[in-house]
Write a structure and sequence with these properties.
mainly alpha; DNA-binding; Arc Repressor Mutant, subunit A; 2 domains; 9 helices; Tetracycline Repressor, domain 2; homodimer
Chain lengths: 210, 210
DNA sequence: TTGACAAACTGAACGGCGTTCTGTTAATTA
DNA sequence: TAATTAACAGAACGCCGTTCAGTTTGTCAA
């Protein structure tokens, strides 16, 4: 009964081939500029075939985003493993998040800068998967902040609120670095300076009375 | 020779009619879900006519964004006019920005959360107009921060860098409030709390040694 | 008043999109 | 070998942004 296994393996191979082609185009040209037809062309299958493997274009790309953001989670896990100064650890985590966004701009934009319809029946299976990863990422931040509070290096009232505030801040930094870094009409300071100053400001704002 | 004037007036009226219809649809359904044909339907003209008044769909909507963001500039001008405590003024300005984004979510997303091709020949006349308004908004922030430094209520090194950092932060707050406020999968704190805590953190991070 | 002219506007089309339906091919099973 | 099933493709549907050739409409000089 090795037939079924081989079939399943072949099916999985094509699925991965679609994902690879889509991922490459996606990184090169961004979500909006990649059509299902283009992906089909590149792997030399018909567009209809893609719909045998993915419900629609959105699901295809959210699969890719999920894969990518799993990488961020792994990176944060790794960082959390390294015992060390809590404050330095927090800072490294925040940097990892920003660097990750800049390294995967299209995934980041699709995941965090695109309207999603949360209303009614719209379940969005894959986006829930992503959200799971997102939540785990958020938990990392929350734990890191908590460690800093316990070590007395930071001080704040509500952990949940503070975590959300910090997240929105680094999200702002990340998304603007992705979107506007090439804007010649605005006198942007160098990215490195913007990032470091941002982290400085956040940590200063959370530091105990000086 | 009042003919030419009347003609020009009529032309301007239709232009405004297009903008009104587009603006309404735009607010109701978001950029991606509004087609040129839908706008044409609503004003009972052919789609082709719209292209006699606007170069393309992008230009149409960036005109709307420009109009809208002029409103923000006016609001900030008004606030700057009211003499008063610099720190309180800064805080009011930041709040005005966030409130404005939440009040005009689609305009905000299109202006600040959509990739723009800054490369080569892409001049984007209208986006330059928007950018002018954006720059003026940024100047407001910069001046407000400078006043706080001069009054001794805040302390920081580089004004330009600090202004950009603060802007990216409130942009993060604004954009996430717009995009994810309805997400049932994430335990968001109430918007009001997120906003106020964000402002607290920023101002605390910039306050002189305590 | 008439005819030339220009401006305003439209119908129809182009090429592309996401997606679905129907049919064909090829491999497996009985 | 015949029946069954899974994988796949061609063609189409109904959208989209945009363009272009042509028609209507109003104005002005003769």
């Amino acid at each position: 009964m090795g037939v079924a296994e081989r079939r399943a393996r072949e099916k999985e191979e094509l699925r991965q081939k679609i994902l690879d082609a889509a991922g490459q185009l996606f990184v090169e040209e961004g979500f909006a500029n990649v059509s299902v037809r283009k992906i089909a062309d590149r792997i030399e299958y018909s567009p209809a075939t893609i719909y045998l493997y993915f419900k629609d274009k959105t699901e295809l790309f959210s699969s890719l985003c999920w894969e990518t953001f799993s990488g961020l989670k792994a990176e944060l896990d790794r960082l959390e493993g390294e015992a060390g100064d809590p404050l330095a650890g927090l800072r490294r985590g925040l940097r990892a998040y920003i660097d990750f966004g800049i390294a995967h701009p299209n995934h980041y934009l699709l995941t965090f800068c695109t309207p999603v319809d949360h209303s009614a029946g719209k379940v969005m299976d894959n986006f829930q998967e992503i959200n799971r990863v997102g939540l785990e990422t958020f938990d990392h931040l929350q734990r890191a902040l908590d460690r800093c509070r316990q070590s007395g290096q930071l001080a704040f009232e509500d952990l949940n609120t503070t975590s959300q505030v910090v997240w929105t801040f680094i999200h702002g930094t990340t998304s603007l670095l992705i979107l506007n870094s090439g804007d010649p009409h605005f006198p942007w300071v160098p990215p490195e300076q913007l990032i470091e100053s941002s982290l400085d400001l956040i940590l200063r704002g959370l530091s105990p009375a000086r």
